[in-house]
User: Which sequence fits this backbone?
């Protein structure tokens, strides 16, 4: 069962089975359900509209070609996310060919990250910036995270996947997901602190 936008609950099993049998209309319904989420995810990871469009197309093309490989051990959307993340990271590798971009960096040795001092913001950022400006500032800060951190943060805090779903989508352990999410949140707070220093309060109090 999947929950779509607006809280509508979907059961993908029947559509997946029909698509496996060659029903292109059934697969088209799956595309319609998840194309916006997959595009948004790819856009966050690649920070490029054109790359996100390519990732969207490649994700559903590969999903269709390899439907027989979907065993149903995880949600269909989680499987799609896995494909989309891999395609997005491939885009980053091509863009930065002199450097390897991988979900395996950095290593998780179980140690807690160093907590840096975070400055106190004065005033209210929402009074200093428009909603669009705040969103742009936040997106820029997210893009500044390393791919390994950014991907986990986007899946957990933007797309709101559970820790278990994120671990399954990225083929990581649950402790690794929790560790990377914590580090991403701390680094993001630090980045936003620098941006809003002496200009407002923490607009991401949940971090």
Assistant:
């Amino acid at each position: 069962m999947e929950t779509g936008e607006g809280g509508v609950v979907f059961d993908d099993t029947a559509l997946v089975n029909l698509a496996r049998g060659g029903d292109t209309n059934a697969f088209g319904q799956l595309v319609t359900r998840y194309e916006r989420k997959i595009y948004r995810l790819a856009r966050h990871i690649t920070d490029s509209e054109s790359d996100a469009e390519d990732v969207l197309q490649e994700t559903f093309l590969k999903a269709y070609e390899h439907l027989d490989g979907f065993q149903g051990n995880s949600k269909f959307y989680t499987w799609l996310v896995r494909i989309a993340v891999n395609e997005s990271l491939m885009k980053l590798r091509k863009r930065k060919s002199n450097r390897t971009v991988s979900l395996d960096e950095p290593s998780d040795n179980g140690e807690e990250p160093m907590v840096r001092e975070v400055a106190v913001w004065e005033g209210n950022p929402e009074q200093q910036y428009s909603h669009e400006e705040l969103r742009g500032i936040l997106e820029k800060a997210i893009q500044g995270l390393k791919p390994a951190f950014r991907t986990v943060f986007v899946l957990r805090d933007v797309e709101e996947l559970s820790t278990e779903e994120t671990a399954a989508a990225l083929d990581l352990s649950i402790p690794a997901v929790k560790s990377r999410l914590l580090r991403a949140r701390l680094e993001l707070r630090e980045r936003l602190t620098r941006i809003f220093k002496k200009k407002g309060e923490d607009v991401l109090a949940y971090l």
User: Anything to note?
Assistant: Strands lie at 2-3, 9-10. Residues 2-95 form a domain with the Rna Polymerase Sigma Factor; Chain: A fold (CATH 1.10.1740.10).
